[in-house]
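Budget justification note: compute hours in this period were largely spent on complex prediction jobs such as the one shown. Inputs:
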Amino acid sequence: MVERSPCLGLCDQAPAAMVNDQALGSIPVGVPAAVIASKSLAKPAVVGGSLRHLTRRCGTGTTPVLATYVADGGYSALTKAIQQLTPAGVIAELKASGLVGRGGAAFPTGVKWESAANASGAEKYIVCNADESEPGTFKDRILMEDDPHAVLEGMLLAGYACGAQRGYLYVRAEYPHAQQRLAAAIAEAYAGGYLGSNLLGSKFCFEIELRSGAGAYICGEETALFESIEGKRGFPRVKPPFPTTAGLFGKPTVVNNVETLCNVPLIISAGAAAYRQHGTEKSPGSKLFCLSGDVARPGLYEVPFGVTLRTILDEMAGGVSGGTLQAVLFGGAAGAFATAAHLDVRMTFEDLRKADLPLGSGVVMVFNHTRNLRTVLEGLAHFFAEESCGKCYPCQLGTVRQHEILTRVAAGHARAGDSQLLSDVGWTMLDASLCGLGQTAATATLSAIKLWPELFAANGKAQPAHTP
Amino acid sequence: MPPTASNSLIHSTEAAQPHINNPGHSGLLPALLKAQKQNGYISKPVAAEIARALQVPLADVYGVIEFYALLYSKPTAVRVIRICGDPACSIAGSHTALKLCVPAWVLALTKPLPMAGLWWSARHAWVCVTRHQRRW
Ligand SMILES: Cc1cc2nc3c(=O)[nH]c(=O)nc-3n(C[C@H](O)[C@H](O)[C@H](O)COP(=O)(O)O)c2cc1C
Ligand code: SF4
Ligand code: FES
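Corresponding output:
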């Protein structure tokens, strides 16, 4: 049985597939699927970059067990926090560090924690959002597979700072390997006294439960994720109330991305001042970028904020492969297109905002000059049409409409006015959708209309077809 | 005869997570995933058993099964191959891989193909059909 799947988080090893629970990378094409199933297991990812803080244990092909993690300085941040800092002290350090969320919305993490800590009620939750399903993203998978204890330590610190007793770690179903690693790490942490009651001789108690998704991109949206943990369909909730006042089970909840949480032990161990030595004033620290598509060395690259796209693409990932640069899909399916003109944009929140590029989840998907961008756009539209949850009309109808139009554009049957239609649909979704999915479902299309209006022209000359 | 879910299916927890007990609505997704892992899909009796044990309306159980792409209420093949069709993979040829299997026999029937193509399609169709054998 063969199915088309949305992004499997193995974009660095494209084309990717899964056979039951087994991830396959670089599958052979042009052979029957039965042959695909037989071999080509996914390989350890290429991990590189000029700053190896978050990823210092990643890409080695091994997962550190508890003893290795502790010997390497692991859980020292938790020990320091419990023995030397008050919960408010942890939050103050985090605020001073300037850490902002890496899940896409770039919300200041310290502020989020503080409002959950100040929320009334004794029962609070920490949720780690590991539903990573944004096409082109695989950073959280590598962090979880190669450094699972760091994720747990980040959650523990969040629990300590916010006064929560319980954490949920929600991992997408397409990551069985990461789930196994995390389950093993959780068991080790319980056995080693890093999870459970009265941790490290204090009064702090914390439990972590691993949860699996079941194939729904929308469950990465924080309130849909709560619904999913509660055993319901993953429909986003209307905000406010915000999670920090009424989140999971209606209780104050902090929800953070995996990469965000992995930054926390670094900040607490080294201190905010040391953390701020990397990156820029307004974008401190480092950032993970997921390079895929037509690049010489697809993989995960960690860099301090402030380097240019050119540095990441040319110096680290080996440059464009198979031709010259046509476009970069930046930030994910919910992101926007960049061109060679953007290569010198510095990777900081402030510079990217000026350039109208959303950092998103750090996706840099490269297309060389031989690629047919109309097909790429059709693929993105297909993704959103499939993944829209259907709760609100602008997105339910808009994503399907967008896909219809882009399908005929990709087939070379664009009609006069299609670009106007796409803009109308796009702006309506952007303005009127309930959640981030609908609000960003057209950003890539809108950016393409701006950059290459000729792509949407009626009887426009077809671009070169796919070169497999 | 499909196996039915026992209470142990719902309340027993993974060996790696002995601290977890998930009664009620919140245990629904884990229970469904677990049942599916055992049987390949969630049969009617299993769904009913889960609904009863967790005290969740059966309609909610089906609502959840239908919402999530990876929950199946119908039997699946022993081997489910899921090929990524999103851009990084599609430019690397995943659509060719996708086309080669499922629609091969459909193509052979619907499109006038040259003889060589027809032969290949028929061959692929045979491979696909044998791989599609379901466990009823
Ligand atoms: C449709 C949609 C999908 C999302 N998927 C994810 C995801 O897979 N992982 C993630 O961390 N955040 C995702 N987010 C963002 C979350 O809603 C939330 O902002 C984030 O988890 C907060 O964590 P942070 O503050 O650490 O960034 C998604 C948002 C939307 C609207
Ligand atoms: S914007 Fe789309 S995904 Fe979000 S609630 Fe509306 S229909 Fe669902
Ligand atoms: S695995 Fe195919 S695009 Fe991500």
